[in-house]
Amino acid sequence: MRRTIISLLLAGAPLAAAAECYTVYDKAGRIIYRDTFIPIDLSKPVTEALQPLFPGGQLVISPDAGACTPVSPSSPVNPMAGEAAPDSSTTRMTYKGR
Fold first, then answer.
1. Residue 77 near residue 21 (C-beta atoms within 8 A)
2. Is pLDDT above 60 for 8?
3. Does the pTM exceed 0.70?
4. Residues 75, 67: contact at Cβ < 8 Å?
5. Residue 16: predicted pLDDT
6. What is the pLDDT of residues 23-52, one digit of tens each?
7. pLDDT tens-digit map of 45-79
8. What are phi and psi of 6, to 5 degrees?
9. How does DSSP assign 17-45, residue by residue?
10. Cα-Cα-Cα-Cα dihedral sign, residues 91, 69, 18, 29
């Protein structure tokens, strides 16, 4: 019985890890990326992987994938107003996501 419970817990572990929301903020505090897909390679240090794609960006990982509304680097969002950031044309992004 104990082995069955442990096996079930271990089998569900990859699913739990996949249920995360990845948000990248720029220097101005705008959300420039948000999705359930990680935008960088986590086999490297986060700063090293993040800076070439999102210069000056900060990555926040949240376990709440259900509230993870996608945001594209081409359309940053002002999180305080919940709407498109007014100066999105100045955002310098090279992210080539899905």
1. no
2. no
3. no
4. no
5. 46
6. 999 999 999 999 999 999 989 899 999 999
7. 999 999 999 999 999 999 988 889 899 888 888 88
8. -65, -40
9. HHS-EEEEE-TTS-EEEEESS-SS-TTS-
10. positive
Hey, what are 70's tokens? 């996608």
Closest C-alpha among 73, 67, 65 to residue 96:
73
DSSP the chain: -HHHHHHHHHHHHHHHHHS-EEEEE-TTS-EEEEESS-SS-TTS-HHHHHHHHSTT-EEEEES-GGG---B-TTS-EETTTTEE-TTGGG--------
Opening angle at CA 18, ends 17 and 22, nearest 5: 100
